Amino acid sequence: MVNVKNPAQIEKMRTSGQLLYEVLQRLREMVQPGITTEDINRLAHKLITENHAVPSFLNYKGFPKSLCTSLNEHVVHGIPDDTHLREGDIIGIDCGLILDGWHADSAFTVGVGTISAEAQRLIDETERCFWIGARNAVKGNRIGDIGHAVSSYAHSKGYDAVHALTGHGIGRHMHEDPEVPNFGTAGKGLRLMQGMTIAIEPMITQGTFEVDFDGWIVKTRDRKLCSHYEHTMAVTVGGLPDILTLPRELALKGLADG
Ligand code: MG
Ligand code: MG
Question: Terminus of the chain with fewer CB atoms < 10 Å: N or C?
Fold first, then answer.
């Protein structure tokens, strides 16, 4: 069942989303060779709880940490530990929080120190996949339009989009209906309605879209790199979606030319 939100509820979700943006900016700034993924987890937990929010990943179905840190061939759900970041790694940082009962969920991938041009291109094109998907999150479109746009663009750049994990509805719960796959058929699936709140999260691979599950950690089957990028948004009365996990000016810029 899809829970459509009213404008007041969407404003609550924006408040959650803006806090999550601030947290993610601090995490992005700390990424450098030598720190551990647990160092990132510790700061995320501190920033979220200091701001009277709850880290939504912690204890979610038994997940042991307050965010996911996924290195290189890890697609998502990497568990922070004493692994040191190395020059040339790429790291996906995925975090969620609950503020006043409302969830926000967002992720980005960034290079550690100097990375290869190929790795940087994957990161940049994954963000473009997100924006192209987001531009399709408009009232009257269907869920398949989003995934079709994401995967078509990925394929045009020589990449693929992971099928086994998807974006999702979000609100009072981290994962609500509908699923928002990163592949699909244009014109198929649930019709998007004003007030639907969804997280679009392309997971884009250099090689195969197929993945292996290793406990929590999801890896590309061919162990090539994967990049992940995610924001929470609301479908609006008309026109482009309202991105809740970015400041408005960055959201408008991304929707215009991301
Ligand atoms: Mg996420
Ligand atoms: Mg998500």
Answer: N
What is the arrangement of strands in the sheet containing 231-234, beginning at the earlier edge strand?
176-180, 167-169, 197-200, 231-234, 242-243
Q: Is the entire prediction scored with pTM above 0.85?
A: yes
Average pLDDT over residues 133-147: 98
Q: Nearest Cα to 229, choosing from 160, 151, 129, 139?
A: 129
Q: Quick one: which H or E segment has residue 50?
A: helix 37-50
CA of 145 to the centre of ligand 2 (A): 19
Residues with CB under 5 A from ligand 2 (ion): 105, 199
Q: What number does CATH give the domain 7-257?
A: 3.90.230.10
> What pLDDT does 238 receive?
85
Which ligand is the nearest neighbour of the Cα of 108? 1
d(CA 119, CA 233): 27
Ligand nearest to the CA of 24: 1
Q: Give the closest residue to 89 by CA, choosing from 8, 41, 35.
A: 35
Separation CA 161–CA 151 (nearest Å): 6
- Report the pLDDT averaged over residues 187-206: 98
What is the domain partition of the chain in residue ranges?
Answer: 7-257
